């Protein structure tokens, strides 16, 4: 069992990411009127995707940004789930989670699709995501977190430090 995605698995994940994005963003989709914007988040975004402890599949997360105002969070989850189930390929893979819709790709990885809408009062990259159990929206900022992580990552610090090392005489 490998800890990180192999190049083949990464290519497959990217292929599925693009296919799911295309399906959800197509003109005929009921989501199209909300101008969907799909982007990676979490470990996929910050390039730290590793196999979870005691699990066989990788967890790949993406945000489905929708230009929504105040909307019922459970209705938004229902809409995204229905759109994924409308696709014959995705229908048997769909699993409803608390804050996202999961697609299970044959024990290699699963893709969590997190609907989100702008958090207008906070602005910028702040988003609101549905919480089915609470029947409410929760604040998040995946792009902000990724930017914060990049500025503090160990690898970045090592590279910056290595750049200041003088060569041996």
Verbal overview:
By secondary structure, the chain is of the alpha+beta class. The protein has helices at 7-25, 42-45, 73-85, 142-152, 154-162, and strands at residues 37-41, 58-65, 94-96, 101-105, 109-118, 127-131, 136-140. It is globular and about 65 Å long. It is built from 5 helices and 7 strands. It starts with 6 loop residues before the first helix and ends in a 7-residue tail after the last helix. Strands 1, 2, 3, 4, 5, 6 and 7 form a 7-stranded mixed β-sheet that branches.
Task: Write a brief structural summary.
With 169 residues, the protein is an alpha+beta fold. Helices cover 33% and strands 24% of the residues.
* Total beta-strand segments: 7
Helix content: 25-40%
Distance between the termini: 44 Å
| Dominant shape | globular
Number of helices: 5
List keywords for this structure.
5 helices; alpha+beta; 7 strands; 24% strand
List the helices and strands and how they pair.
Elements: H1 7-25, E1 37-41, H2 42-45, E2 58-65, H3 73-85, E3 94-96, E4 101-105, E5 109-118, E6 127-131, E7 136-140, H4 142-152, H5 154-162
